[in-house]
């Protein structure tokens, strides 16, 4: 494939792109979407690799696990460039928890410029409703950006935000429903004690 050339899968899916899937926490919808897309590329006979953040070993240390415990093999790292040579032979690169990788923006841009499809699943905002890491800097480089909504775990409306249930103040605190919940705009403003 020529640098900058775009191949197309049947059904119109571009090869050679950056695709970003974001969401608030809960139920692993972006992770499930990432795994679904990777499986689709595998069916299309594309060589694929999944990369996970090494700091998140809640479900499986050697794979990406959806919240319903479906596990897919993945390479664990804390910096994407540390495994660059290991993934260069792949046509499709999936990155889970993209918000935790400090080099996500230059890595994804470089890989797409080399003819790869890069799919990133990430939280777009922190519990403070601020951009998470460098993930928002990936938006102008992406061919597609999808923001999935969850269900507010307090009032059951659409949820676009993250509410931390504990008292930790640092941004990177790995956890699931015991530490975070997806909430709507109104419920994000409530104190944790007032949330059902």
TrEMBL record:
Belongs to the thymidine kinase family. One of its GO terms (molecular function) is ATP binding. It catalyses: thymidine + ATP = dTMP + ADP + H(+). The keyword Transferase applies. Pfam families: TK. This is Thymidine kinase. Substrate binds at residue 180. Its EC number is 2.7.1.21. SUPFAM superfamilies: Glucocorticoid receptor-like (DNA-binding domain), P-loop containing nucleoside triphosphate hydrolases. Homotetramer. Tetramerization from dimerization is induced by ATP and increases catalytic efficiency due to a high affinity for thymidine. Interacts (via the KEN box) with FZR1. Keywords: ATP-binding, DNA synthesis, Kinase, Metal-binding, Nucleotide-binding, Transferase, Zinc. GO terms for biological process: DNA biosynthetic process. It comes from Branchiostoma floridae. The active site is at 97 (proton acceptor).
